[in-house]
Amino acid sequence: MKRGKIDELMDAIGAIDEELIAEAAKVRAGSGTASGSAAESESGTASGSAAEAGRAGGAENSLPAKKRSLRLAALAACLCLAVLAGAYFGSRAGTTDEELPLLDIAPVAPAGMGDSAIGLAGTDLDEFDNGNPWREEMGLKTLPAFKNSSYDSAGAPIGGLSAAEMKERLQQLSAAFAVELLDIQELKLADGTLCGLSAQNGEIVLEAERNGGLYIYFRVRVESEEAAGGRTEGGLLALPAQWAGDGAEMTDEEARELILWLTDKYAAAFGFDDPQPVTYVESNLVGDCTRKFAVYDKGSSDVADIINYNLARVEFYIEDGFLAGVRIIGRLDVIEEAGSYPLISVAEATEKLLAGEYKSLSGNYDIEEEQVEKVELVYSTGTEAYLIPYYQFYVNDPYEGMREDVVHYKLCLVPAVADEYILTETLASWRYWG
Question: What is the pTM of this model?
Answer without folding.
Answer: 0.78
